[in-house]
## 1
Amino acid sequence: MAVQEAGHSVHGGGCTCGDCPHGAREGHRRAVAEFGARRDELASGRGLPAQIAYSEGASRQWISDELTASARAVAERSRAAGAAWLHRVWLRTLLAVWGCAGLSLTVLAVTAIGTGWGPTRTAALAAALSAAVLLTGAAWLHRAHGGLLAPVVGEDNRLSTSRVVAAAWVLFAASSVLFLAFRLAVAGVSPDAPGGGPGGGPGGGSGLARGAALLLVVAVVCLIAVVVRRVVTVRILTQRVQKVQADHPRTADLLCDDGGRGSFTDTQYVLVGAASLSYAAVVLVRDPGGLPRLPWSVTALALVSAFVYLAGKYAEGSRPVVLSVVRAREPGDLDGPIRTGDDIEIRGAGFVPPGAGAPDRLARMTVRIGPVHVHVPLVPVAGGFTNPTDAGIRVPVPVDVEPGRVDVQVVTAAGAESNRVSIDVTD
C-alpha cells in the first residue's frame, strides 16, 4: 500500500520525470477537466469579481483573460503529454516490427509442414530478420521522435499520408531485394540465370522487364511525397493554406484532414495503396523467383490514385476572408454608426483553421482595426465558445482608434492575414 501511494505521489499531475509518461498524461487530463469546469462556471455567470460584475465589457474582458491563462496551462500540459507519447511510442513500433517478424516465422513454419523447409523459406526468414534488425536500429536512432514514426511525421506533427504510403512501398521493395539476395546466397542460383525461376524454369527474375511496374510505382509514390511537402510549404508561405501544430500524431491523420474530418483523397490513396501492395505481396509469395511482376492494370490504378491525391493537395485552401463588418446591436439598442467603444461583428470564412479549435489557439486570434491590434475575447457557453467562430468574430472598437475611415483585418491563430475591409468610425 505504501509503495502504491508513493507511486501515485511520484506519477501524479506534477510529475517531472524526464521520460515518465504517467505525470504528463494525468496532468493533461486534470488540466482539461479543470478548464472545462472553469469555462462552464464563468459561462453561467458565477465566479466573477464583485467590482467588475456591473460592467458587461469589463466582465467579458476579465472572463476572456481568465480563460486565456487557463487555456495556456492546458496547452503546456498538452505539449508535455505529446512529448511523453512520442517517447514511449517508439517501443511500440519495435514490438510491431518484431511481431511481424514472428508472424512471418510462424507462417513459414506452418506452410513448411508436408512440403519441407527449403532454401526459399530460409531466404524469406533471413530477409524478415534482417529488415527487422535494420528497422530496430532506425527506431533507436529516432527514439526521441517516435521511433519508426519519425520519418513519416510531417512538420505539423501529424502522420503524413504521402510519406506513409511511400514508406510502405519502399519497405516492400527493399524487403523483396533482401529476399532475392538471401535466396541467391542460399540456393546459389541467380534469378536472372536460366533455371533461376521457380521450379527450375527460365529465370529473368530481377530483370528490368519483370520489375518495371513495381519500380514505376515506387518512384511515383516517392516523388508524390516530395512534391506534396513542397506544395504544402509554398502554400503556407503564400498564405493559401493554414496549418497549426498537432499535439502528437494519430492514426486518424492518414484518413482525415487537420480538423479530424474524413478526407476522400487521403482515404482513397491509402486504400488503393494497401490493396495494390497486398496484390504485390501475393505475387511475390506465389512466384518467389524474382521481383513481383505487377499487372499494368494494377499499376495504372495505383498511379491514378497517387495523382488524385496530389490534385487534392493542390485544391486545398483555407485562407481567411472578411466579407463584411457591421455594428453589433443588442436587443433594445438604437441603430447608429460605429463609434469607439461599440462592438463590431466581422463576418466571413476561414477564421478558425482546421485543428485550431483548442482554446489556447482561439485566444491567439487578433483583429487589426486601423493601427490597433485587438485580441479577440473568448465568450464561453456550456461546452464551448460563441466567440470566435469560423464564420464570425465580435470585438470592441478600442478608444485608441481615431475617428474616420479605418481598415479591419483578421489575423488567425495560424498567422494568416485576411483581406482588409474599410469601415467608418465616428465620434
## 2
Amino acid sequence: MTRLIVAAGGGGDAVAAAMLHAALYGDEDQAVILTYAWDRLLIDPLPGPRGADSFTGLEPVTQSVWSVPAEAQPIAPAGSALPRLASELPHTLALLDPHQGAEGITRQLEELVSHLAPASIDLLDVGGDILAQGDEPTLKSPLADALTLAACCQVNAPIRLLVAGPGLDGEISPDDLRPLFGTPVHTFTAEDVETIGSILEWHPSEATAMLAATARGARGICEVRDAGLPVPLTDEGPAVHEVDLDDAVSRNSLARAIMTTATLDEAEAHSREICGFSEIDYERNKAAWLKDQPPVPLTPEDVLSQLDRFQADARARGITHTTFRHLTEALNLNGSQRDELRRLLIHSRPDQYDAPLWNIGA
C-alpha cells in the first residue's frame, strides 16, 4: 500500500512528512514524498528551486515525475539536500518541479495519483504559512506553498491538508491559524522524532527542527532566520491539525491567482503583485551579496567569544533557544560553515545542545 505525501514548501516539510508517515501509518505502508528541491541558499548557492534538468541520476516515475535516489547528484554549481535525504529515508522522494507553474504541478499530481493509486494523499505544511492571505507583514515565503495548494485543489482526488507546528515558521501567528483548524490529527512525541533524529543533525530546516524540539519538550522562544525572528516554543508546537482544503484556497489569494500559471515566472509576477514581493527575488539579491563576501576563518576562540556576546544580548531579549542556521548568520559566518560551527559548539559546550536546537543558557 502506498501513501502520497506532498511536502507543501519543500525543505523541512519533506523531513516532517517522513515523521508524519511513521506516526500515522507505521511501517506497513511505503510513502512517496513529493517535494521541491528548494534549499533557500542553505545548501544550494543558486536562488530558487531546481528542476529535473539540474540533476543527474534521476529515475522516471511517470512522464513528468522523476524520483531522486541516493545516487542522484545536483549539477554544479547547484546543490540539493534530496540525495542525502533519500539515502536516509525508507521512502521514495519525487521531485516537485514548479517551472511549469501550477499547471505543471497539477499534471505531476494527476500522473502520480493515476500511477500509484495511493491509499491516501496528504498535503503537509509545517508552520501554517500555506494559510496566509498574502498581506501579512511577517510573510516571507508564500510562493512555494501557494503553488502546491493551487495544484492540489485542482486534482480529482481526496487530498487532506495538514498543518504541523502552527506558527513555527515565524510567518503566521498561531492566534490567526487556530480558528481555521479542524479536529486535531496527532501530537508528535519524542518517540516520533526518533524516526528523523539523525537527519536533523545535518538538515538545515529551522521549522522542522523546532517541531522536533517541541515534541521533545523544549519550551521558550527561539530566534530564527537571518532576520532573527522570535518564535514561541509552546505546547501547541508538536500538534498536527487538519484544515479544510477549500477554506485554505478561499483564504490564500496568491493560490487562487496562480492556478492557471504555466511558468514559474508567471507565478512570481502574481506574488509581487499580491504579496508585494517574490521570495526568489530575495534569494537572488542575497545570493549576489553572499558572492561578494570574503570567507571568514572560523577560529574557535573568536567564535566562542562572539557567542558569549550574542547569548548575553539574546537573553536580554528574552530568547531561550536558537538554530544553527541563525547562529551562523549572527556570528557573520558563511552558510557553508554551519556544520563546522555546530560541531565546535557541541564539542565545546555539550550541555547547551538541546537537540536539534541550541539552548542559549540561563
## 3
Amino acid sequence: MTTDKSGSVNRRRMLYGGAAVVAGAGIAGYASGEWNAPAAAQGSSDHPGVADVVADFGAKGDGRTDDSAAFAAAYAYAESRISGGVGHTVIDVPPGVYLVKKPGALLAGDKPDKRASGLRFRGAGMRISEIVFAPESAKDAYLCRNNNMWSNISFEGLRFTSGTPGASFFSSYSTGWAQNYRFSECEWMGEWEYGLALDGSNNNSEMRWEACRVGGAYRKAFLYSGLSKRSEKREQQDQFLNYWFTDMTVTYDWGNFLEFPYGGSITCRSGSYIITGRRPTPHPEYGFESAFFRFPRPSHFDSVQRFHAEDIRFEIRDPAVVVIDCEWNSGTVHFNDCDDTSQSYRQYSDGLTAHRYNIGPAGPLVRYDMCQLSGAHQYRPAAGAELPASVRYDMCRLVDHPADAFVAAGSHDRKFARFVDCITPG
C-alpha cells in the first residue's frame, strides 16, 4: 500500500474511468473557451457520475484563488453527460471556501433546446463548503442561471455568500420546463439583490427548502416570483406554484423573504423567523420596511392565492418589520400555532400593524388558529364593498388589544372579523 499522497487521486482516476484525466484537460480548455468533454464520457453507463471540483477540476478552495474556471468546467462536464433528456452527474464540493467571480460559473443552463432533468450539487455542510460569489459588477450578475433548460436540481450542504453587495444567487426562467428545485441544509449570507428570481410564463414550480438558513440581506427578496414585466398577464406567471419551506432558520438583516407579485401556493412550516435590523437607506417601494411575506398584486386566478404558515416563531425587533402584507382580493391565508409576541414588552408593540390585508367581497379568507399575536392587524376594505365574514381568530391570545380594537379597518364596520374563544388583555 502506497503512502504517496497522489495515491488517492490515482485511485479516483481508476474509479472514474479516466474522468479526472478528462477534467484536467478541461480546465485549460475552458480557460481558452474550447472545453469539450469526449463523447465517450457523455451518458456513459460505467461512469459513476460523480465529479469533484477539487480532485477532478483543480479548484483550490482557499478563499483567495478564483475558482470560477474549475466550477464552470465541472458544470460543462455535467452538461456533456446529458443523455435522453436526463442528467447523469453529481458535482461534489469538498470542505473549503471557494471564490467564484464569473457569473453563471456554478450553473449556466442557457440551452433550452437541450432540456434535461436531474443535476445535483453536493457540499460537505452549510458551513463547511462555502461558495463566495464576487463578480466585478453586481448588476444582473447571477451565480446560477437556468434558462428553461434544467428541472430537478438539488443543492445540499452548501453555504452561498455574496462577496459583491447586490449580486444575485439564481435566475430561473421557465416557459414550461424549469421546475423542481430542492435545497437541503444550505445557507445564504452577504448582501444580495435577489436570492432566487423567477421569470417566464409557466412552471418555475415545485420548489422545496429543508433545514436551510436564510441569513444576509436582500435588496429585493430571497424568493421573488414575477421578475419580468414581459409576463404581466395573470395566466402566465400565475402558473408558478407550490413552494415549501420546512424547519427553516430565517434570520437575516433586512429585506423581504418571500415576495410574490404573481400567484403562488406557499407553505412555511416550523422554524424561527427573525429580521435583525432595518434597511440602511429607504427603498423606493418599501421605504425602511422589511417583510417576511409580501404579496403585492390583487387579481389572480383561483387556486394560486394560497398561503399557510404553521409552528413558526416570529420576532418583530423593529416597528419597520412586517410579517405579512397581502393585497390579494381572494384566496386563503392561514396562520396556525404561530407566535409573534417575543418583543411584546417593547414600547412600540401595541402600535404595531405587522399583519396587513386588502379585503373585499371575495376575501381573501384569513384565519388564525392557536396563535399568540401582538399589536393590531390592519385590514384595508374595498371602497363601498359589502364584506362577508371572511376573517376568523380561533383560540388565539391577543397581547396588546381587546378584540374590538385588535382589527384596524378605519371607519369600516368590523363585522367581517370573528373571534372565537380568544384570550384578550384585561
